[in-house]
Amino acid sequence: MAESSPRFVQRWLLPMLALTSAALFVFWSFYTLDFFYTAEVGNGEVSSPLGRYLRFDSRSIGDAISSLAGVIAAIFGIVITVVSIIVQLAANRFTGVTRMFLSDKINLAVMTYYIIVCVCGVWLAPSLQSDYVPRAALLLMLVLSTLGLVLMAPYFGYVFWFLDPMNIISRTRRRAVSAVEQGATERHEDRRFAAQARVLSSMEELTDITSNSISGKDKIIASGAVDALKDFALAYIESKSAAVESWFRVGPQIAGNPDFVAMDPESLKDLEGRRTWVEWKVMRQYLGIYNEALAGMRDINYLIAIDTRYIGQAALRSEDRQLIQLVFCFMNSYLRATLNARDVRTAYNVLNQYRLLVEATLRSGQLEVALQGVKYMKYYGHVSYDQKLTFVTETVAYDVSALCEVANELGLESEAEMLKEFLDLDQPLLTRGQEKGLLGVRKAQVKLACYYLASGQEQRARTIARDMAAEPAERLQSIRASLESVTSKDFWEVIDRGRNFEFMPEVQRSQLPQFFQWLAPQPEAQQI
Question: pLDDT tens digit string along 235-246?
């Protein structure tokens, strides 16, 4: 791809001008000094250093011309050798680098330039005769050779820049976007299917870069590749509406991909009917990366959850319900993999993104989808409790509580059903002995009740009180003491959420006595 004018001037023109000017200044300074002060033979009719220089002697210049042709050939050999080594090292680490390098216009232009200069040098050597020197051709060869010499420095700099991992990632993403733009609206079937293959190849190249970077503990490169997949997906979602219908069919050039081959034929047909094979492939790559990163680079797991949420929010903006459902399926898969790995910290982070996604769904008016998301969260809260990952269950409780507050602020009809799901979160827990997990759930419910009281919604608060009516007095006292003791929203450790779970603003904390008064045992009426 051609470079912009400012970048061309900075990367190529200025370095070449500086090197050429410095070299010629040094040469002509000493040549002029020799001409006027140190020449042993008189200059005769020649009145200037340039005139003297241009008086090429055919009897003595033959060896110089032959050497000139050899010099430029040697320079070309050095360039080819250095570049080949660098490209090979990069190709061992990143898939598709060689193809990318050979298709780059600047690389092709530089190689073409050196070949042309070498050919000119070969042809110039025998053109010299005993009584004739081809001065114009010789001067041209001198100029071309000079440029070839000074070109090496900026070109090596360009090669290193070209093979920088982040630039490879960016170039691969642009290749995928370009293939989508060309193929999604292509009427010719063969070209459309070829574009699908380029899209799939680019996505898998980004996945390979991520996997290699995770193995090498290179978080910066891995994060860049993960974000590139997200950027591609967002660009695709924006242009998806203009695609022809046949674009959404899995073509023959990609049908043999292992991810598609492994799918049940009916599921593959459903994927085509939902018009989501591209997004499915992106998030399928994410899922593979996610499972790999669980063992050694958890920050990538969190980044994948963030980027998947961005894809879900883009689906909400485009009102693509099928894609929204697909995003939730993959978020659920992330949670399942995390719980199976018993990685509490990652589950905590992923649930934060899950909550933000459900909140965005609420704000966009997709109430049915949001309610389903809350049910999913409740389900994984139960799963984590069964696995004795009580902190995850507690996290689910506080997140669902926050979603109920959002639904209440927006005045949504689905709030009542969400509250019911929230209160059901602890029901299967009553028969178990894991007191810590149950306390966390109840604290979240008390916080929500105090929110209702602070906003003048006593009936909803009493609904929560009735649900907690059977709680032992000692447990209630423990919950109240714990909530009253938290007066700062900041936790004493660094956390991504930025707020302590148990913190309540003063207006809500002041409602604790009223709520617990409802739960206090009532004295029996005196016998008459």
Answer: 999 989 888 999
